[in-house]
User: Fold PPM-type phosphatase domain-containing protein from Manihot esculenta.
Amino acid sequence: MGPIMKRYREIETCIECSAVTLTLVPDVFYYAQKAVLHPATPLFDQENQTLRPRCERALRRIFLLCDRDMDGALNDTELNDFQVKCFNAPLQPAEIVGVRRVVQEKKKEGVNDLGLTLEGFLFLHTLFIEKGRLETTWSVLRKFGYDDELKIRDDLLPVSSKHAPDQSIEMTIEAVEFLRGIFRLFDINNHGALRPADLDELFSTAPENPWCEAPYRDAAERTTQRNLTLKGFLAEWDLMTLLNPKGSLANLIYVGYGGNPASALRVTRRRTVDRKKQQTERNVFHCLVFGPKDAGKSALLSSFLERPFSAVHNPSRAQCYAANVVDQHGGNKKTLVLQEIPEDGAMKVLSHRESLAAYDVAIFVYDSSNEYSWKRSCEVLVEVARRGEESGYGVPCLLIAAKDDLDPYPMALQDSLAVCEELGIEAPIPVSVKLGETNNVFCRILSAAERPHLSIPETEAGRRRKYFRQLVNHSLLFVSVGAAFTVVGVAAFRAYNARKNSST
Assistant:
């Protein structure tokens, strides 16, 4: 079996046993149980004889949590507190000396004058695993809330899943202020931006850097050196909270958020209530960006992130996001999230009755020089209006006439004004990303989202249904009032007769 185990390093144990003579039968069940409760594969790479990245990141976070004085080493008191927390038993002074000696013999940088360093802490756990004491490392990990995938357990992430489809989840002021402090802490050069290496260091205590892949990769404002500005940093967190609240809360905890997890996120008020009250309390607004191929959607998103215009057209094959903080009059700052929908993905987004419930505003981008582009955007606009009327989740809509630097097609102005008048929305906003003339379009999108009772398109069928409902309501009101007067009249008549009979 030796050569086989050497070849297949993932095999943890090999036992020769006999059911006839009962040789090592209890060991079979012991190691089978151990393989389930304390598996080696998530912790250790047998091929390279090193800790796996997720395990190392989790242990790094645990070390930082235990290093309360933040001097980069666990002193005797901190080491003893760690032992009591994980194993309910203190370390004797001789045992602490023994631990230090073992580490120093094998890894000199694992111990310094202040105590056990991170390198020494990781080495100790490597030693435990190599000696088959996986239960020691697993006990530590589980005591600090990790599951079998070396992620924070779901029961430690109090994110409400019971909310209406037209509600969203945002970070609280407390969480935002914590992130501002984290940004300053990792902005070592005080340049107002985090380098990719700084971000890797920031997420070194998380299972992985969540912003390395879609949809977060390239979804926020960066400098020409690819560094993440404070606006971009906060916008990335807002985007992650909007799309994956539980993952956002977990990452907040990974990077050091020490407050009550329940106080980090909040559920917003229903959008239908916002429309009735004609105002909103949201800080993050979700915008759908519809439009046909080559209409200028991607260029608009790039402009939102203050990236230079590129004449090279790379058609989007999937839904893309752009998130940024928009400055408003009076110094208010709100986050706007633009979600680009490919031409062939519009009907998929609108496939469910409650599809529009999760969005605050929708824009329809078209090439103002191309009649086909206009007609396709108009078709989607009418479909969105119809779906909103049927579901009761209508959203404010704006038309964006892109490529305003080109000559418009004949009848462009008349066609667009006629449609806007028919649907009861604003005239198209002309934009030329190439010339840098965006016509304050992003503030106008945000303004439409903040006034959820306006700019909602109405079709002719929708107006007829609305008129019919009002007519029915008025009829019911008259019937109710008439019935009330009848009841009052009958009661008065009976009282009069009773009084008359009594006097007689």
